[in-house]
Structure of PQ-loop repeat-containing protein 1:
Amino acid sequence: MSTLIGWVGGDSFKAVYFFLQGSPLQFKVCAIFQLSIDCAILLQRVMYGNAPPATALIEEDDIEQALALNEE
């Protein structure tokens, strides 16, 4: 999470710098694009970052049933 916050912070400062310094349009467009990608990744991290691993979703009973079927 700290890496993502660093990306967003760095790209935010870069975008502000480009706009304040009157940089060419392509610099401004790329800065906004990079910032939007950072925000999309950050949003995904917030939404899905605390999901349990797929193996945690398997119940113990399911494992025992699979083992019992395998022994037959």
The chain has one domain: 2-71.
